[in-house]
């Protein structure tokens, strides 16, 4: 049996080089000047956590709302966490908290803070559940 013959590969004609496209700025978080304009010069922040749920009172933005605030109101028709809002809008957490602070002050949205639970569950409750399961 003879080994198969290797076939020589000839290089294909290279396509003509395309002109370089101008650099595009990323939507949302790519431009620090835009983030400054969105957040405003004062930059006050409410005490919001990543898991704080935000709910809009009305999904219709007022005429004076910025595009980012209008987008936040549309997204918050159902409760969403601050982390989800930040991801959906492609804005940093700090910028979203500044926007939400302004909207909380104007009572356009409501914040539902997470429920803090005890570190350890109640032992008597666990024993009652265990005894109830053993009776089954």
Automatic annotation (TrEMBL):
Feature: compositional bias, Basic residues: 1-11
Region (Disordered): 1-34
InterPro entries: DUF742
The organism's place on the tree of life at top rank: Bacteria
PANTHER family attached to this UniProt entry: DUF742 DOMAIN-CONTAINING PROTEIN
Name by which UniProt lists this protein: DUF742 domain-containing protein
Species of provenance: Streptomyces edwardsiae
